[in-house]
Amino acid sequence: MSKIIQVEVTDDIFTPATVNILAGDTVQWNFRSFHNVYETVDSSCTVKNTWNSADLSTGTYTQTFANNGTFYYACTVGNHCQMGMKGVVNVGALSSATANNSPATTTSTTTTSISKSNGSKFVVLSTAFYILSSTILFL
Ligand SMILES: [Cu+2]
User: Fold this and answer.
1) Is residue 90, in this structure, part of any structural domain at all?
2) Rounded to the nearest 5 degrees, what angle is found at the Cα of 7, between the Cα atoms of 6 and 8?
């Protein structure tokens, strides 16, 4: 059963900014003032040339998400994105939200310390000997 999820587009924020949907669901942005919706490559303001609403002051723009993934978008009017007018659509997030409830995993860290002092002294001595012998040969 696919759903249509509503996002309000006002000055200068998407509400809600994060939506969690399932593959096949549609997001509908309702424009209340002059903005737009452009897909971005990540949570930055770099536009991805896939889908966008173009500039709208009223009306709606819809986008159906067929595949699971994390889809970022932003408003590119003026410096709205730089001011934080961004959103994200998590598709398939309902199952990952369940996964987040699993107990935290513990990570063990093994620290191995290796003394290199003897090796370093050998390198220094060898280099000194090499320079010395080269100098002798040169003379
Ligand atoms: Cu805007």
Assistant:
1) yes
2) 120
Tell me, yes or no, whether 109 lies in a domain.
Answer: no
How many Å lie between the centroid of ligand 1 and the Cα of residue 74?
A: 8
Q: Which two tokens stand for residue 129?
A: 């000997």
66-116 residue pLDDT tens: 999 999 999 999 999 999 999 999 999 565 444 433 344 434 444 444 444
Q: What span, in angstroms and rounded, lies between the C-alpha atoms of 67 and 60?
A: 22
Which residue's entry shows tokens 């997030």? 93
Rounded to two decimals, the pTM is 0.67
Range of the domain at 61: 4-95
What separation in Å is there between the alpha carbon of 54 and the centre of ligand 1? 11
